[in-house]
Design brief:
alpha+beta; Pnp Oxidase, Chain A; UbiD C-terminal domain-like; five-stranded mixed beta sheet; single chain; 13 helices
């Protein structure tokens, strides 16, 4: 499935909105996307650009499932399978992404959005960057791109991560391809963090068939059905990049970051530009969902894990709810320890039993309220490796951010406060009780009329 067939799928499901009136990519477009609660939307008339713009396409799990052709309940297992067993993508000789080859580079033609007045400038936020590490091979990842002029971007590279490390190993310059307008499988795969040397495009191809095409001016391969491809190189030059709204909905700082020089632009006929609202639901879902399988697999090493959710309130990055089928009194504590190993940026985690709907914050809070004693069920770890996205963490330039971490065991306690074990019947008293549903249609219910 490519972006266009995905749009058709959303349209057939009644999920795609369209906006035909002229909109300005400077502030107005982002405001409308946000005002629409990031529902999938196609803007057909963007001021100053010949490209229509789509946004909000992966802001809900149900729509991501549509894009992968699986049931919503199968999303986690589909991602786990793709991460465990990537499939090398095939190469094609003729690619839709190269239907049009621009004779000159004009990045100002792209409707890059200025999202907030405090931003460092117009940003490409939904582009995936493909490079080749001299030692580890192909790598695909998300990087925000600040447009500097008609040929250059500043690219944010997180220190020690894939592209940053590859650039260092390559001696400070690196060929690059930027793909804009991608199917959900490519977007999800670009957000994964597999072991070094694992090809993210193989993960994408395991999720949905993802044929590749050779670039025209760099020795790289890109999704053949991408809407727009920008070919160029990461240079040794650096400029100020930022501020920019990040996952935590706080402004990231200004840093000196590398410059990308674009030397070739190819695209589909009537290409569609894809935007992603920084700090929004789509940003969080795309970044968080690929981490849920790694937490699931880590917890599964010590107990029976049944589900994982990185919550939007935690930026889909810092907070997780882990559901387990408890077999032993210590399973909750063991699950917490492994959850933090499964996602190194995780800051707070809650473990619940299988009767708790992890997608319902009220049910999770109820489990904390009724099943937790803080002096025994709260685990604290100080001075741990944390996330650069956490504004309250300790940040030192050039060093890994550090933070305190907390785990909450909100599973049914299998031991009494005295230390003796609870029987199965005693544990069942912790289950939530409720009323039986009634068929209201069989009752005559009317609004009262005041005299």
């Amino acid at each position: 499935m490519n972006l266009r067939s995905y749009l058709s799928t959303l349209s057939d499901a009644g999920e795609l909105l369209t906006v035909a009136q002229p909109l300005d990519p400077r502030l107005e477009l982002a405001g409308v996307i946000h005002g629409l609660s990031e529902q999938p939307v196609l803007f057909t008339n963007v001021s100053g650009s010949r490209y229509p713009v789509v946004a909000g396409l992966c802001s809900r799990r149900e729509n991501v499932a549509r894009g992968l052709g699986v049931a919503r309940e199968r999303l986690l297992e589909s991602m786990r399978t793709a991460l465990r067993s990537p499939i090398p993508p095939p190469l094609v000789d003729e690619a839709p992404c190269q239907e049009v080859v621009e004779q000159q580079v004009h990045l100002l033609d792209l409707p890059a959005l200025l999202h907030l007045s405090s931003d460092g400038g117009p940003y490409v936020s939904a582009g995936v960057v493909i490079i080749r590490d001299p030692d580890l091979g192909r790598n695909m990842s998300f990087h925000r791109l600040l447009r500097l002029d008609d040929r250059r971007f500043a690219v944010r590279l997180v220190e020690g991560r894939g592209t940053h490390s590859a650039l260092h190993r390559a001696g400070g310059e690196l060929e690059v391809a930027i793909c804009i307008g991608n199917a959900p499988a490519v977007l999800l795969a670009a957000a994964t963090s597999p072991p070094p040397g694992v090809d993210e495009l193989g993960i994408a191809n395991a999720l949905q068939p993802t044929p590749l095409a050779r670039c025209l001016t760099v020795d790289l391969q890109v999704p053949a059905e991408a809407e727009i491809v920008l070919e160029g190189r990461i240079t040794g030059q650096t400029v100020a990049e930022g501020p920019f709204l990040d996952l935590t909905e706080t402004m990231d700082q200004v840093r000196q970051q590398p410059v990308i020089e674009v030397q070739c632009v190819t695209h589909r006929r009537d290409a569609i530009y894809q935007a992603l609202l920084p700090g929004g639901l789509e940003h969080k879902l795309l970044m968080g969902m690929p981490r849920e399988p790694s937490i699931f697999d880590a917890v599964s090493r010590v107990c029976e894990c049944t589900n994982v959710l990185l919550t939007t309130g935690g930026g889909a990055w810092l907070h997780a709810v882990v559901q387990i089928r408890k077999r032993d009194a210590n399973d909750g504590r063991l699950a917490l320890e492994e959850a933090f190993r499964g996602h190194g940026s995780l800051k707070h985690a809650i473990v619940v039993d299988e009767d708790i709907d992890i997608y319902d914050p009220e049910r999770v809070e109820w489990a904390v309220a009724t099943r937790l004693q803080a002096d025994s069920g709260v685990l604290l770890w100080s001075d741990q490796p944390g996330s650069s996205l956490d504004p309250s963490a300790r940040h030192v330039q050039g060093l890994k951010s550090t933070t305190a971490k907390m785990g909450i065991d909100a599973t049914i306690p299998w031991r009494k406060p005295t230390g003796e074990p609870r029987t199965v019947i005693e544990r069942q008293t912790f289950l939530r009780q409720g009323y039986s549903p009634v068929a209201l249609d069989s009752y005559k219910v009317e609004k009262a009329r005041h005299a």
